[in-house]
Amino acid sequence: MGIFSLFKKKDDEAGLGISPAGEPTRLALHSEAERARQREIARATAMKIDAIELAMTSDLFEDAPRRVPRQVQPPLPADPDTLVMQDFPTTLLLTDEEMQAAVPSAPEENVAEEAALIYANGDAAAARAMLEAAIAASGRGERPLWWMLFDLYQACDDAAAFEQLSIAYAEVFETSPPPWQGLAAATSASHAAPAGASVALPSHLDASLAPLLAQLDAQPTATLDASAVRAIDAAGAALLHASLRRHPQLPLAGVAELAAILRPQLQTGVASADPAPWLLLLELLQRLDRAEEFETVAIDYCITYEVSPPQFVAPVAAAGAARPPSLGSARFPLVGELSGSVPAFEAHLAEHGKLIFDCSALRRLDYAAASALLARLRPLAEAGITIEFRALSHLVAGLLRLLGMGEVAGLYPHKY
């Protein structure tokens, strides 16, 4: 071995920190400790970096929805009517609309039906207490309950209670309250004669009409039937006009035909002619709610007699209710309180081919009368006859719906 090889080997061993005896030198021990310390520093640095990265990740995604861990569903309780509480908030399951629909509401429909049935059976006080309690309990409730109570106050002629309810209605719904229509006043004389009584006019109306028309003063709710009239003179027109003026809410039948008989008798520009036919025709046109035709006749009347033309006034029975002008005498009136049965309407149906019941002056219809009416109308509806109930009180409408009248007829409560 050369000298250079010998020196090289010794230098290598010294550099490795190995003594000639084969044991580590102090330098070697120092280097090993230094490397251990550096490894600890590196691990600590790596841990700090990991912590910083985790914090940054949390800051970036802290607004993201956190997945709720799926929980094992506990066993159902013994009572099947009791639901297990969930481990997560229900707001994560339902939208606002679904939550609103899921909240059990007061059985207001049941209250309305029960109140209508109780009122139909003649216990207005109990129906009133039920409706008042339902509205007070809910704090607001649905408008149909308020409308039924408005109708009940009017039927009982309780204007003070109606006024108080109107104030509350305006505050709760932030709209104008319904107007007072005086339903009780309109039908207060309904017990003066048997419901549905009819006074039929003869074929010729003249001065002999007076005794017959006097019957209307004794039974003001009777229906005046002019279906048989074929001729009328000035004296008869004057008597009938005066009677109609005394009874502005008198139910009429066949008045469209009577108006058609009167129209050719009018002589425009002949001031010497008796004005009674003119006045009677104007009265009938108002009862038929024919405003445009009324205005035409009123202008001719003004020209003929050189007086101010009369003003059109909507029919009293239709106050506050939607009354289509096209219906005219096709309406069959139901007036007052009907118990057990309703007036015969077969002749009216034969004349008009349809049944449009005018209920604007109908205060109450009891259960027996409504059931009997349904039995009479069902075969007609199956035969294709048009049947409608117009300007119904909301109380009466509730009873008819409960009985299923909506399956055979159109039900149109008056609007509030």
Please name the defining characteristics of this protein:
single chain, 416 residues, alpha/beta, Serine Threonine Protein Phosphatase 5, Tetratricopeptide repeat, four-stranded parallel β-sheet, three-stranded parallel β-sheet, 11 strands, 9% strand, elongated
Structure characterization notes:
The chain has 416 residues and is α/β, with parallel strands linked by helices. It has helices at residues 3-15, 26-60, 96-102, 108-120, 124-138, 143-155, 159-173, 183-186, 210-218, 234-246, 255-262, 276-287, 291-305, 346-352, 367-382, 394-403; strands at residues 198-200, 204-205, 223-225, 231-232, 252-253, 331-333, 336-338, 355-358, 362-365, 387-392, 410-413. The chain has 4 domains: 29-61; 108-180, Serine Threonine Protein Phosphatase 5, Tetratricopeptide repeat (Alpha Horseshoe); 198-315, no CATH class; 328-413, Transcription Regulator spoIIAA. It has 16 helices and 11 strands. It starts with a helix and ends with a strand.
What is the string of SSEs from the N terminus onward? HHHHHHHHEEHEEHEHHHEEHEEHEHE
Radius of gyration, in Å, reads 45 Å
Estimate nothing, just give the exact number of structural domains.
4
| Helix fraction bin | 40-55%
Approximately what portion of the residues adopt beta-strand conformation? 5-15%
Mean pLDDT: 74
Beta-strand segment tally: 11
Number of helices: 16
Q: State the major sheet.
A: 4 strands, parallel
Briefly note the structural class of the backbone: alpha/beta
Shape: elongated
Poorly predicted runs of 5 or more residues? 1-16, 61-106, 185-196, 317-328
Order of strands in the sheet with the most strands?
Answer: 6-8-10-11
Our measurement of the CA-to-CA distance between the termini, rounded to an integer number of angstroms, reads 126 Å
